[in-house]
Amino acid sequence: LGPQGDSVQPIFITVDPERDTAEVLKQYVGNFGPDFVALRGTPQQTAAVAKDFKVYFKKVEGKAPGTYTMDHTAASFVFDPQGRLRLYTRYGSGAQALAGDLKLLLASA
User: Fold this and answer.
1) Which helix (H) or strand (E) segment is 90 a member of?
2) Distance CA 32, CA 29 (A)
3) Does the pLDDT value for residue 109 go beyond 80?
4) What pLDDT does residue 47 have?
5) Any idea of the CA torsion for 42, 71, 95, 20, to the nearest 10 degrees?
């Protein structure tokens, strides 16, 4: 996105606040870039936000005792500076498509 990328604030919200501690999230988002922010709430807050955004998530017990994975919606929501939802993109659409959409949105801002 070049210099326009400074106008974009990436935010990751965990659906597994019990396992995703602040330290785990810091390390995780650090893999994407220094400008990423990670949010976590209580399990109740997470459920409420997921409901508001119509995001599915479910804990799936693993084969070994005490292990599990999280099934969840894999998507990104893009909001404009006024807080309006402008883009919903599903995982797998590719970085080029997302970058193109973001450039269009940034140009119209």
Assistant:
1) strand 85-90
2) 5
3) no
4) 96
5) 30
Name, in order, each residue with C-beta under 8 angstroms of 76's C-beta and a sequence gap of 6 or more. Answer: 87, 88, 89, 91, 98
Q: 48, 34 in Cβ contact below 8 A? A: no
User: Cβ contacts of residue 17 below 8 Å, gap of 6+?
Assistant: 40, 41, 42, 43, 45, 46
pLDDT of residue 31: 95
* CB of 79 closer than 8 Å to CB of 109: no
Amino acid at 73: T
For 83, the 3-state DSSP assignment is: coil
State pLDDT tens for residues 58-73. 999 999 999 999 999 9
Q: What is the spatial distance between Cα 97 and Cα 89, in angstroms, rounded to a whole number?
A: 9
Q: CB of 68 within 8 A of CB of 62?
A: yes
